[in-house]
Amino acid sequence: MKNIKIFSTVVLFLLFSFSNAQKIGVVDTQDVLNKLPQYKEAEARLNSQIDTWQSELQNLQSEYEKKRSAFESEKVLLIGDQLKLREKEVMDLEKNIKTTTSLRFGTNGEITKLRTNLVVPFQDQIWNAIKTMSEKNGLGIVLDKSSNNVLFLQKRSDYTDKVLDILLKGSTTSDKKEKTNSKGKK
């Protein structure tokens, strides 16, 4: 009799546990970002700015090399203030290159800030789409596949395409609303 009570308690506990189990879904946020046209455009603008800054830095580096080489070759001919002035020009240019590199390409540089500012609005959009999708599908947990936190994944649990559908349909819907609003204002 005691064994039957223990067995029935275990069975009831297991049934209760299974009935309260949460559904888990997985989304690849990096894949979502890469498929959003607005993100691609913003990333292209950022890359264009990075290319411009790299070009400016290369020009500074080239100017520095020319001045340093000219200074080295003319060093023996220069005297007193001329020598100090030319040496200061070369040193100032070198310092300018280091400062520019640090300000633009350093760990707390402009590129890092721009990249952060680029991603945050899209992360917010993705978060809202994931929240909507998880509520519609009754998911208790949604994991991010791109952060390597998933050990096993069945395709039926991957909701990346559904999040993309929500985002892409939402962007076309908002684009249509903007077009109709702009037509109505004219």
Name some characteristics of this structure.
6 helices, 186 residues, single chain, elongated
Can you offer a commentary on this structure?
There is one protein chain. The N and C termini lie far apart (84 Å). Helix 2 runs parallel beside helix 6, helix 3 (37-74) packs antiparallel against helix 4 (80-105) and helix 5 crosses helix 6 (160-185). The protein has 186 residues and is mostly helical. The chain has helices spanning 2-19, 29-35, 37-74, 80-105, 110-137, 160-185; strands at 23-27, 139-144. Helices cover 77% and strands 6% of the residues.
Please write out the topology.
Blueprint (H helix, E strand, L loop, with lengths): L1 H18 L3 E5 L1 H7 L1 H38 L5 H26 L4 H28 L1 E6 L15 H26 L1
Parallel strand pairs: 1-2
Helix pairs in contact: 2-6, 3-4, 3-5, 5-6
The share of residues in helices is: over 70%
What's the pLDDT, averaged over the residues?
Answer: 80
**Spatial sequence of strands, sheet with the most strands:** 1-2
Protein structure class: mainly alpha
Task: Count the DSSP helices.
Answer: 6
Main beta-sheet annotation = 2 strands, parallel
N-to-C terminal Cα separation, in Å? 84 Å
The coarse overall form would be elongated
Secondary structure tally: strands: 2
Query: How much β-strand is present in the residues?
Result: 5-15%
Low-pLDDT windows of residues: 12-17
> Measured on Cα atoms, how large is the radius of gyration?
30 Å
**SSE order, as H and E?**
HEHHHHEH
